[in-house]
Amino acid sequence: MSRKSDKRPLTDKQISAQESHIPKIAARAFANAYKAAIASGATVLVVADGQLFKVSKTERVALRAIEPYGTLKSGTHIKITKKAQLHALN
User: Fold this and answer.
1) CB neighbours (10 Å) of residue 79?
2) Would you tell me how many other CB atoms lie within 10 Å of the CB of residue 56?
3) Which element (helix H / strand E) includes 34?
4) What is the maximum span of the chain, computed from C-alpha positions, in angstroms?
């Protein structure tokens, strides 16, 4: 016999409240991963100000301009398909 008591199922309101924290958690996880990658000496690709940058501990190099995708509302789902084969950056 289990010592744990039976858990009540969550209500829709409780589920929504918990799900509302997901964007904050994801943003924090990405920020931490970025910092860890840079600290370990890795190179990271970043988009800022309409440019794709290669960022490392010692440099930040603009690789190319990035076209805007458009304005999306928060929570919008999009499907991205490959248009062309990506080439490795040297």
Assistant:
1) 4
2) 13
3) helix 22-39
4) 63
